[in-house]
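FAQ

Q: What does a record look like?
A: Structure on top, sequence underneath. For example:
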C-alpha cells in the first residue's frame, strides 16, 4: 500500500508543475485559441491542486477523503473531456507548413499528461480507502481527457496549422 500523505504531497507537486507549465505556455503562444486552451488547462491543474490539498488536510486530520461530488460542486474538478467535443479531423484543411511553437509545447504536454494519467491510476491501485481510490480514478480519467485533447490538438495543428477551439475554453462558467 502507498502512504496516502506521501502520495498526496507528490501529486500536489506534480500538479503545481503542470499549472506552471500551462501558465507559461499560455504566455508563449500567439494564437488566441491556443492561449485559451493552455489557460483552461492551467485552471484545471489549479483545481487538482485544491482537491489534493483538501484530501491531504482530511487525511491528516483523520476525517477521510473529500467526496468527488463535493469537489465537483466546488468547481475544483471538471468532467473529463470527451472526444465527442472535438471537431472532426477531416475539417482540418490547409497545406502543411513549417512547425509552429505550439507543436513543441504540445509534445511535452502530451508526455506529461500521459505520465499524470498513469501516476493517478497506479496511485489509486495502492490506496485502501474507497473514497481515495475513487478520487484517484477520477483524476486519472480527467488527465486521460487532457491527454486525448492534446493529442487531437497536435494532430489538428499538424494538418492545418490552426488551433481548434471547443466550447469549454470559450464559454464562461463551463467546465
Amino acid at each position: 500500500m502507498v502512504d496516502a500523505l506521501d502520495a498526496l504531497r507528490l501529486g500536489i507537486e506534480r500538479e503545481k508543475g503542470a499549472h506552471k507549465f500551462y501558465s507559461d505556455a499560455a504566455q508563449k503562444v500567439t494564437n488566441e485559441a491556443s492561449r485559451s486552451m493552455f489557460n483552461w488547462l492551467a485552471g484545471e491543474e489549479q483545481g487538482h491542486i485544491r482537491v489534493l490539498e483538501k484530501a491531504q488536510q482530511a487525511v491528516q486530520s483523520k476525517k477521510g477523503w473529500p467526496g468527488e461530488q463535493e469537489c465537483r460542486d466546488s468547481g475544483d474538478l471538471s468532467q473529463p473531456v470527451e472526444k465527442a467535443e472535438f471537431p472532426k479531423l477531416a475539417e482540418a484543411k490547409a497545406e502543411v507548413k513549417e512547425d509552429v511553437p505550439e507543436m513543441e509545447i504540445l509534445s511535452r504536454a502530451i508526455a506529461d499528461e500521459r505520465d499524470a494519467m498513469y501516476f493517478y491510476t497506479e496511485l489509486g491501485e495502492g490506496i485502501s480507502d474507497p473514497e481515495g481510490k475513487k478520487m484517484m480514478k477520477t483524476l486519472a480519467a480527467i488527465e486521460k481527457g487532457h491527454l486525448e485533447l492534446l493529442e487531437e490538438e497536435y494532430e489538428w495543428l499538424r494538418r492545418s496549422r490552426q488551433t481548434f477551439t471547443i466550447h469549454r475554453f470559450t464559454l464562461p462558467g463551463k467546465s
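Q: Is there anything notable about this one?
A: The radius of gyration is 17 Å.
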